[in-house]
Amino acid sequence: MGLKVQNVSKTFGKKLAVDNISFEIDKPGVFGLLGTNGAGKSTTIRMILGILKKDEGSISWNGKEVERKYVNFGYLPEERGIYPKIKICDQLIYLAKLKGMKEKEAKESMDYWLKKLEVEEYKYMIAEKLSKGNQQKIQFITSVIHNPELLVIDEPFSGLDPVNTELLKNAIIELVSKGTYIIMSSHQMASIEEFCQDILILNRGKTVLKGNLKSIKEGYKANRVELITKKDVSNYINKNGLKILKQMDNQYEIEIREEKEAQKLLKDLIENNVEIEKIEVKKPSLNDIFIEKVGDK
Amino acid sequence: MKSLFTVISFTIKDMVKRKSFIISNIIILLIIVIGFNVPRFLNSNESISMQKITILDNENVLGETLNSLKENFKEVGYDVEIDIKTTKDEIKEKVEKEEIESALVITENENGIHYEYIINGMGLNTTAPTEIINTISLAYQNQKLSQWGISPDKLQMISNTDNIEITATSSDETSGNIFIMMILSVVLFYAIYFYAYQVSTAITVEKTSRIIETLVTSTSPRIIVLGKTIGIGIVGICQTLVTIAVAIICAKVFLPSDTINLILEMTNLSPVVIVVIAIYYLLGYSLYAMLYALTGSTVSKPEEVQSVNGPIAILAVIGFYLSYFTMMNPTSSLNEIAALVPISSPFCMPFRVMMGLSSINEIILSVLILIITILLVAHISIKIYSSAILNYGEKISLKKMFKMYKSKD
Known about the structure:
The structure holds 2 protein chains of 2 kinds.
Chain A: E1 3-12, E2 15-25, E3 29-35, H1 41-49, E4 56-61, E5 64-65, E6 73-76, H2 88-98, H3 103-116, H4 132-144, E7 150-154, H5 162-177, E8 181-185, H6 189-195, E9 196-203, E10 206-212, H7 213-218, E11 224-229, H8 234-239, E12 243-248, E13 251-255, H9 259-271, E14 276-282, H10 286-295
Parallel strand pairs in A: 3-8, 3-9, 6-7, 7-8
Antiparallel strand pairs in A: 1-2, 1-4, 4-5, 9-10, 11-13, 11-14, 12-13
Chain B: H1 2-17, H2 19-48, E1 51-56, H3 65-68, H4 70-75, E2 78-83, H5 88-96, E3 102-109, E4 112-119, H6 130-147, H7 152-159, H8 178-208, H9 212-215, H10 221-254, H11 259-267, H12 271-297, H13 305-326, H14 333-338, H15 345-354, H16 360-388, H17 398-406
Parallel strand pairs in B: 1-2, 1-3
Antiparallel strand pairs in B: 3-4
Helix pairs in contact in B: 1-10, 2-10, 8-10, 8-12, 8-13, 8-15, 10-12, 12-13, 12-15, 12-16, 16-17
């Protein structure tokens, strides 16, 4: 059950945009699709949605080959688009009806989402009069108004302030709790880490990393120490043969090869009566893993 | 099918709610109402400016004949009063005292009839009332010829002007008024062209506002293109029907009662001809709408619309003029060709049918050619539209368009 992408490839002219990628989403939740610009994320998404035809492989939803008429998908494209001169309510109902909803259901769903995302007051306004953030929230509603089984959201938080980001995050959590399968593509690694159980990192059309995010991170050993002290301790760090990655006042990010090095530094600081505000041994973040996997290629 | 109706209904609502649409309709309807009132307005002006004149015939040169000519004088702008009693001096006095505006004194001498026009003061524009004098002179001639023994039949023979006959060397017969047909041809061209152009605009708006990517995940490109084309076509038909209905009502209310019949006679507008016009209107619109759908989908910036639509506009103008100019010589073989070529047949064939120049076989052939062309253009347009959806870069060249058509996406 769920979405199954198997050995899918796509070529544009002589350029191989997506090279034999495979992944599966077998339970409701958020799947993270990551990659640098031009890595093949949008092409993959468009093939899943049936906008582009794949050259090879198969994409199935609940065991059936994906076709627009068989699946109830929602899509928030990276390139935002709404009718600039048409009232919000008219365009939301139009798009919901195109997805097969009846007018009454569409109106109820529209009112629910407009209230949830705090944009009720713009219901009868034309889209071009709304701020960019509010336009983005309306665009998000167009992708979820018809209660999709699979929702594809490309950079959902870009351009949103922290308050609106939180509103959208709550909406995504609610959708997951209702059993929606979500594919999220984003460059905001913190958001991916917050939501995604499974991820796939693409680089130049090829899969460079995929799997459960927690397991991936567990596979990495601690490699950094975050240290905050009352005074300058760079001499102690250097004395222990460690490399400072970042320093701001008395806050340090230090590279370690094994956890013992952190313990040795801590012992040294205590013996010298250095007041420590915070010390934390850290595993690489998703951002670090991402850079490691695609940064130098 | 449900999606198609949804797109059609949305397109119609979007079009009729636009301020520009409402304002342009109000202006068109106002122009019609005012236009039909112009003859009345001119007539009322004429009655105000009708010149009063007294004709003095105290020598009884024409007798009762003058009274029977009063209506003829009115038609040429004179409100005439016949006086057979007053003397010339008394009339002069009346003119001087401005009791009457002017007078025409008729006398007879050995040279025949003599006219004296009396007016109070000579202005730069003062002229004798030639129309009255010509009418009276003719009546005087007839009276004299009758007195000299020429019978009314002989009089009719020598004054008959209804004796002109036209002989055509070609066996084709034409009927109807070509001038009126040319006007109808222009109206048909604008009706087809204007609404077909709207299809391009509607598609471009979806492309440039990037809503298209959301739309194609909801329904197929074919449904979007067909829905837009049909929706705008329905608005076009309704607007045309409303315009015609208002024109007919205005004609009935403001024009003399027999004007509509006269126009129908002049244009040979029979029910069959109306059906033919409707068919060619729909097919012509479909052809140009599909061509505009093709160009509209290749645009990614609003400012590119004009330039990409240029070739279609040129094609439409060539088609129109091919029909328009050959209509002046409707029996020529060029006009026959124009009635078969798809870009010109919608503007040409209805008028050949009106003139009774085309056989049923020619009409069927012309409609078939047009339908096949529409299907071909629609197929290409939908294919290009589907492939051009994700093209947000530069304008698509012909070469790229060909590649898109050949690609499987």
